[in-house]
UniProtKB/TrEMBL annotation:
The keyword Lipid metabolism applies. GO terms for molecular function: delta(3)-delta(2)-enoyl-CoA isomerase activity. GO terms for biological process: fatty acid beta-oxidation. This is Enoyl-CoA delta isomerase 1, mitochondrial.
Length: 338
């Protein structure tokens, strides 16, 4: 490598480390210790495997080993039972695959794991992140409905806080984020996709959209802001009210996704898109992203507690619980009938 390109890389690395990352700073103040505090949960404890992950520092470590690194070697960060995370040591691009059968629904444990892994990849200096799914035909079915149905209030609050946190981390991420949408992506699944900088969706009988009204619930302001920022105000008005689930072709037509390709081409398309984005100086790219996204992030950052209170008071209403119960029963019925 020439001296000129070395010093440019150094300057970029320095700029990255100096960049005052408002979201992360803010979050680390608000929610320190997410990675180290055992989360007692309904079904399990989330910590052991995450702490094992945090002993590794693949991006930094491996960049020092550049001379001996094989081109495109994949370094697995291991798996917890919910996520499969690996890092390409030559590019610093991480791939995070959701693997929570049957439908990658976002429970408290799952969201906690996602937050911890995002923090880890960010602090390891990863430059890019591909979010995908290991489950065929499913990106994510959105929020785990049983978290909201007949809930324990303390857990419900933690669930919503962790969802907020995940959104804040991902929407403002310093990494280049690309969603590889190889399956259905309703509600929270669509939200996660929209947080990414670029969305590649597989063609076929799949759907994506914010369908909350179909469950009788109302997407909070930060969900709708994210949609407005993605597809524009008018399209968002219709989509939110109708709970519209778009086909891949419809989604690309309104800009909800950026590319639709055959399923077998999703990985290659994501890789070539990432390669293009990686050519842009990282600090300039990230500051440009924040210029557009920070006002939306700030709106939630300034009202997090109020948003949790609103959510809890809304979701625990008898009428809303009734709607959720009916929706869950219909899902189960449909699943049984298959
Ligand atoms: C103020 C509140 C704001 C809330 C904001 C966000 C809301 C959300 O994100 S709510 C979640 C909304 N999600 C959905 O409406 C999606 C529902 N699921 C589906 O449409 C389908 O499951 C899907 C198209 C994703 C996949 O279809 P299939 O592959 O055919 O799977 P099945 O439908 O047979 O489902 C298998 C199994 O999973 C259960 N399931 C599905 N989605 C959820 C979910 N979101 N939460 C919990 N459980 C879910 C489904 O009932 C089946 O269970 P079993 O009957 O036990 O097999």
């Amino acid at each position: 490598m020439s001296m000129a390109s070395k010093s440019m890389l150094n300057a970029q690395a320095l700029a990255r480390s100096r960049l005052s990352y408002r979201c992360y700073n803010h979050l680390s103040k608000i929610h320190v210790g997410l990675g180290s505090t055992p989360y007692s949960t309904k079904n399990s404890k989330v910590t052991a495997s995450h702490q094992a992950h945090s002993l590794l520092s693949p991006c930094k470590l491996l960049s020092q080993q550049k001379a001996t690194a094989r081109k495109f070697s994949q370094r697995s960060l291991g798996q917890d039972n919910l996520l499969d995370v690996s890092v390409d040591s030559s590019s610093g691009v991480a791939t995070l695959k959701m693997q929570k059968p049957p439908v990658n629904s976002f429970s408290l444990e799952f969201l906690t794991s996602l937050c911890i892994n995002l923090d880890k990849l960010h602090s390891d200096g990863c430059r890019g992140l591909v979010i995908g799914s290991s489950l065929p035909k499913i990106f994510s079915a959105g929020l785990e409905i049983t978290e909201m149905y007949q809930p324990d209030e303390a857990r419900l609050r933690e669930f919503w806080r962790t969802l907020q946190e995940f959104w804040i981390k991902l929407y403002g991420s310093q990494m280049i984020t690309i969603a590889a949408i190889t399956g259905h992506s309703p509600a929270g699944g669509c939200l996660v996709s929209m947080c990414c900088d670029h969305r590649v969706m597989a063609d076929g009988k799949l759907t994506i959209g914010l369908n909350e009204t179909l469950l009788g619930i109302v997407a909070p302001r930060w969900f709708s802001d994210t949609l407005i920022n993605t597809v524009g105000h008018r399209e968002a008005e219709r989509a939110l009210q109708l709970g519209k689930l778009y086909s891949p072709q419809e989604a690309v037509a309104v800009g909800l996704v950026d590319q639709v390709v055959p399923l077998e081409s999703v990985a290659a398309t994501v890789e070539s898109t990432m390669a293009q984005w990686l050519k842009i100086p990282s600090h300039a790219r990230h500051l440009s992203k924040l210029q557009l996204r920070q006002p939306t992030l700030d709106r939630l950052l300034h009202t997090r507690q109020e948003d949790i209170d609103n959510f809890v008071s809304f979701i625990t209403k008898e009428s809303i619980q009734k709607s959720l119960g009916m929706y869950l029963a219909a899902l189960k019925q449909r699943s049984k009938a298959k």
